[in-house]
């Protein structure tokens, strides 16, 4: 190519880069789901709510008489054809993010994965006798799965009741990572609380998904992990449908890799659930599971939920009437402290392959799901601004303390 032509080609390339680059960073593509939020009214029974949850729509949250969902036009028409009343909800005015990979303005109080690890390290450095930061494995994309132990004599495995808190199985539920972080901070600062307890915290059990949710210029509304699904372009498994107890039994999850509640190709097919399982299995020492109680934190709807999720029955194999009564009593006592609504998880809608069912069925761990703030999509849904973090995580301090207290004398 003659020299002047090369120059022209070079100049054209430069112009292309200059024109395209700002477009690529300032206006990233919309999430590829054009669905809109709705409130589905008049769902007075768990069966009706489960039916809607099964229809393929993205369930955002729910309560005693309703569900909030994201539905495409076709899905909304289908639900209406079944006689359902669908009220459009406001689309959140979510900010665009000028800094890909960071939280946008109004959200910078939330921790990215790197910021979370740095915070855990600095807490461990500040309280070396009470806080130990480590990892229980690696995510699909190779991120360390963070694990924190908080206890007196933290380096020693003492004969103390052990309690586990897990956060952020669902990527877009960022407030939950802040909840786990607060638990670590508060227990680290108050030696009395962990004098005779061993508290384990997994603040980000789905780091690939959480990072993906903030990776572009807009929140991705991402729920699952980031594992590819063989033979399809669809990415991700819903970690809270991938657990091995009654996996896929009851139409409480999806077999479609494109669905938000895809259960995965097999129980524990996600490295994130498999390694969490292995770690909990490893807490069986001398034939005895050391963990007595567990909360898996989610957003949103302001609920306290307990097993089983796979069946509407209050009792089922491994969960008798006494167990059900204890779950209810403890769940209600915790809900009394934060104003959430307490119920068996299947009273919301049926889910199979959820973590609570496995924790109880496999290890007799008193395992709860807390669905945090807000109550509704109308109050921010999965994306409330960082100004609520302090208030809405502190709201659960008493419930956490109560669970720690009760962990000593649970059956
Ligand atoms: O569906 C879930 O996994 C949880 N709700 S969320 O909106 N955060 O995705 C609820 C799990 C509790 N179990 C049952 N409802 N059965
Ligand atoms: Ca200890
Ligand atoms: Ca111990
Ligand atoms: Zn969730």
Can you characterise this structure?
It is a single chain. 32% of the residues lie in helices and 18% in strands. Strand 12 (303-306), helix 8 (321-338) and strand 13 (341-344) form a beta-alpha-beta unit. It is globular. The chain contains eleven helices and 14 strands. By secondary structure, the chain is of the alpha/beta class. The protein has two domains: 36-88; 113-406, Zn peptidases (Aminopeptidase). The strands form three sheets. It has an eight-stranded mixed beta sheet with strand order 5-6-8-7-11-14-12-13, sandwiched between helices. One calcium ion (CA) is lined by residues 151-153, 158, 160, 198.
Number of spatially distinct domains: 2
CATH fold node name of the largest domain = Aminopeptidase
Unreliable stretches (pLDDT < 50, length at least 5) are 7-30
Question: Overall pLDDT, averaged?
Answer: 92
Q: Give the H and E element order.
A: HEHEEHEHEEEHEHHEEEEHEHEHH
Radius of gyration: 22 Å
Shape estimate: globular
Helical content, roughly? 25-40%
Number of E-type strands: 14
Report strand order across the widest sheet: 5-6-8-7-11-14-12-13
The major β-sheet equals: 8 strands, mixed
CATH-derived architecture of the largest domain = 3-Layer(aba) Sandwich
CATH class of the largest domain: Alpha Beta
From the helix content, strand content and strand pairing, which structural class follows?
A: alpha/beta
Q: Which molecules other than protein and nucleic acid are bound?
A: N~2~-sulfamoyl-L-arginine, calcium ion, zinc ion
Tally of DSSP helical segments: 11
Range of strand content: 15-25%
CATH superfamily of the largest domain: Zn peptidases
């Amino acid at each position: 190519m003659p020299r002047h032509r090369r120059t022209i080609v070079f100049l054209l390339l430069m112009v292309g880069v200059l024109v395209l680059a700002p477009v690529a960073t300032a206006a990233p593509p919309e999430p590829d789901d054009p669905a809109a939020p709705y409130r589905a009214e008049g769902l007075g029974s768990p069966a009706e709510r489960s039916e809607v949850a099964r229809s393929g729509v993205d369930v955002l949250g729910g309560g005693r008489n309703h569900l909030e969902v994201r539905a495409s036009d076709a899905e909304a028409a289908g639900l209406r054809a079944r006689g359902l009343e669908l009220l459009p909800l406001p689309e959140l005015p979510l900010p665009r993010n000028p800094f890909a990979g960071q939280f946008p303005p109004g959200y910078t109080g939330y921790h990215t994965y790197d910021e979370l690890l740095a915070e855990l390290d600095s807490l461990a450095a500040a309280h070396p006798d009470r806080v130990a930061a480590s990892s229980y494995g690696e995510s699909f994309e190779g991120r360390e799965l963070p694990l924190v132990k908080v206890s007196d004599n933290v380096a020693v495995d003492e004969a103390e009741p052990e309690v586990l808190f897990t956060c952020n199985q669902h990527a877009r539920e960022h407030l939950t990572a802040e909840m786990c972080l607060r638990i670590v901070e508060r227990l680290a600062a108050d030696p009395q609380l962990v004098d005779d307890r061993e508290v384990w915290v997994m603040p980000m059990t789905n780091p690939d998904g959480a990072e993906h949710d903030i990776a572009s210029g807009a929140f991705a509304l991402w729920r699952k992990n980031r594992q590819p699904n063989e033979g399809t372009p669809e990415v991700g498994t819903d970690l809270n449908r991938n657990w091995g107890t009654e996996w896929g039994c009851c139409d409480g999850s999806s077999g479609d890799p494109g669905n938000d509640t895809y259960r995965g190709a097999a129980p524990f097919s996600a490295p994130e659930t498999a390694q969490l399982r292995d770690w909990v299995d490893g807490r069986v020492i001398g034939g005895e599971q050391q963990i007595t109680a567990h909360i898996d934190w989610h957003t949103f709807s302001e609920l306290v939920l307990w097993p089983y999720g796979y069946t509407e029955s209050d009792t089922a194999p491994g969960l008798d009437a006494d167990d059900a009564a204890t779950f209810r009593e403890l769940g209600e006592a915790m809900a009394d402290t934060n104003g959430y609504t307490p119920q068996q998880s299947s009273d919301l809608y049926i889910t199979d392959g959820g973590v609570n069912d496995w924790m109880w069925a496999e290890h007799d761990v008193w395992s709860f799901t807390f669905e945090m703030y807000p109550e509704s999509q109308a109050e921010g849904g999965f994306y409330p601004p960082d100004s609520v973090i302090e208030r809405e995580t502190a709201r659960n301090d008493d419930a956490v303390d109560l669970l720690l207290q009760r962990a000593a004398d649970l059956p």
